[in-house]
Amino acid sequence: MTTYLHAVAKVCKFAIKKSPIYFVLRSIFINFATMNKSMLKSEKWSENVILIDADYIDSVAFDLIVNFERMIGRRIPKADIAHWIDCIALDGGLREGDNKIQVVFIHNKDSKSLSNFTPCKFEEEIDGKAFKDKIGEFMMSAFPVEDIVGKDDFFVDALELILNGEGVKRVMVIPDQDKTYEKVRVALHYANDEKRITLFAMQPMQGGNFRQEILGYSLMSALGIKSDEIK
């Protein structure tokens, strides 16, 4: 490991004598991000792809749990992730059949799991796993991103790769509406008009070359919150 660090340091063009550890670690982080992008580029995309900012949906689920527990006066369990993905697929226009759907989670490297969903562990329970139901077969993958690289930029890069993927016909995208939305909207502006694109957010957003759906409805269903409880 020491030899590898020295090799990276020699390649680095910066003034590493002032802060060698920072620049070596930065090189490793960028290497890691490049590896993840290469993995995304090598993906053979299905006709249907769901792209998710995992940290964002976890935060939204937490807010819903806290608020609705106060409102309806009962404990709300963690969201069933397969049920939620089904709802996203249906809202995105899919119907029962032999569909193939890829589900891509982008998350910060420090986030090892989702706190408000089950199953929740990215490496052990989500990445490389699949499930099948009446809608079709869902194949899941999870990509961690170092903070120094920027998850928002990585998310948009992943979206552009998917939009340009051969054979992709339907894209469902759940970005962080507070941090990434504008970049996502610009990326979607250049998407092929033949692709059916659905963007999910907690409220109607400035329009673009896509359909919109309210994210909260699918999350409420996955959390087991019934409409008659909130009347």
Low-confidence stretches: 1-35
CA radius of gyration:
19 Å
Tally of separate domains:
2
- H/E element sequence: HHEHEHEEHEEHEHEEH
Structure summary, number of beta strands: 9
**Straight-line distance between termini:** 60 Å
Q: Roughly what percent helix?
A: 40-55%
Outline, from the CA principal axes? globular
* Major sheet: 7 strands, mixed
Number of helices: 8
Strand content: 15-25%
* Structural class category: alpha/beta
Key terms:
single chain; 231 residues; alpha/beta; 2 domains; seven-stranded mixed β-sheet; two-stranded parallel ribbon; 8 helices; 42% helix; globular; disordered N terminus
What does this protein look like?
- It contains 8 helices and 9 strands.
- The protein is 42% helix and 21% strand.
- It is of the alpha/beta class and 231 residues long.
- The model is unreliable at 1-35 (pLDDT under 50).
- It is globular, with a radius of gyration of 19 Å.
